[in-house]
Specification:
This is 2,5-dihydroxypyridine 5,6-dioxygenase. It holds the Pfam family NicX. One of its GO terms (molecular function) is metal ion binding. The protein is built from nine helices and 20 strands. With 345 residues, the protein is an alpha+beta fold. It folds into two domains: 112 residues, Rossmann fold; 214 residues, no CATH class. The strands form four sheets. It has an eight-stranded antiparallel sheet, with helices on one face. A five-stranded parallel sheet has the order 2-1-3-4-8, sandwiched between helices. Strands 7-9-15-16-17 form a five-stranded antiparallel sheet.
């Protein structure tokens, strides 16, 4: 297979950020012929850096939609799991997020890098050490907070009691044993304590329904009580879409409130779904990572050490929100105002 020189250079730079080198084993997990060029480029780049590389290629029986998580071809594949757990680092080209298998691989000490976006998005949002610094600061602040509150002029007012769950940072590379990240990304998040998330979320036009790769067109009001959505209302089609989609899983855990955090990647574009000509090939990392968004989510929480493994995951990045950790202001009307995370415009 002929490799694109730009792709190889970029992936080598990524593996350098991940501190891949002599004496380490890189396992590239792929499915069938999906992302075959990515798999080859990562293995060649690892070899150039003096590491050993192998491709664990599995058969996928079905292709999951963006909002369906934790269902993948590693389930029941003991040989592949043993191989991946013995590696120093795993490149995930399949999509293990919110799965028990991912948690097992991390617990064995392997760091994992998920890579799902096409090359043009990776180039656009490629990680920097400054992004890591700002995301790590967000993680530090979340770890020290007892409450997160976010509001909007549209009527959102949500409160999360914090402390039960860990904080996860995503800045696009990983150089620590057992740590997971996603290339590209740029945010930090945690989850509210069980049963201690309450309030109202008001989705407005311009907010994002990541599972559908589309923008909210009409006002949607989500009522949250004791950590779960108890009502979804609105006059337009968006409320019906969200309600019927979540109901289609026939799983009450789909309505549980999942992770909460904010975006810090100034290279990400909130309007990407409208600007791109390659939306079917793209994932949703622009939407999840754009600077100043509040990433409100529902559904599974295995990634954070919880027990909810529902297949229904809804990421709903919101614009123009304000957010506080205890009494510390982080966002104001969709802009980062905390000095340690704010960028010069």
């Amino acid at each position: 297979m002929k490799l694109d020189a730009e792709l190889l250079t970029l992936f080598r730079k990524e593996l350098e950020l991940c501190r891949i080198g002599p004496g380490q084993v890189l396992a590239v997990l792929s499915a069938g012929d999906e992302k075959a060029e990515y798999a080859q480029a990562f293995m060649v780049a690892a070899g150039q850096l003096g590491a050993q590389a192998l491709n664990v290629n599995v058969t996928r029986s079905q292709q999951n939609a963006v909002g369906v998580q934790g269902r993948h071809p590693l389930v029941g594949n003991d040989l592949a799991m043993r191989t991946l757990k013995s590696a120093d680092m795993v490149i995930d080209l399949v999509g293990l997020l919110f799965s028990r298998e991912q948690a097992e691989i991390q617990a064995a000490g392997a760091r994992i890098l998920r890579v799902m976006e096409p090359l043009h998005v990776i180039k656009q949002m490629f990680p920097t050490e400054d992004l890591r610094r700002r995301v790590d600061r967000a993680k530090q602040l979340l770890e020290g907070a007892s409450e997160l509150r976010f509001t909007s002029r549209a009527g959102t007012d949500m409160r999360y009691a914090l402390g039960q769950y860990p904080v996860i940072s995503e800045y696009g590379y990983t150089d620590q044993p057992g740590r997971w990240d996603h290339l590209p990304s740029g945010f930090a998040f945690t989850q509210g304590n069980d049963g201690q998330v309450d309030g109202t979320v008001v989705l407005q036009p311009g907010d994002i329904i990541a599972a559908f790769k589309q923008f909210v067109q009409s006002r949607v009001v989500l009522t949250v009580r004791d950590g779960s959505i108890t009502d979804i209302s609105g006059d337009g089609m968006d409320a019906e879409l969200i309600r019927d989609y979540m109901n289609s899983f026939a799983d009450p855990r789909a309505f549980a409130i999942s992770h909460i955090g904010w975006g810090l990647n100034e290279r990400a574009r909130w309007y990407q779904f409208s600007a791109t000509r390659e939306l079917p090939q793209e994932h949703v990392m622009n939407a999840l990572s754009f600077y100043g968004n509040v990433l409100f989510s529902t559904g599974p929480n295995l990634e954070l050490g919880g027990t909810n493994d529902t297949a229904c995951h809804m990421d709903l990045p919101m614009r123009r929100c304000s957010l506080w950790l205890d009494d510390v202001e982080i966002l104001r009307d969709g802009d980062v105002v905390h000095a340690d995370m704010k960028i010069a415009r």
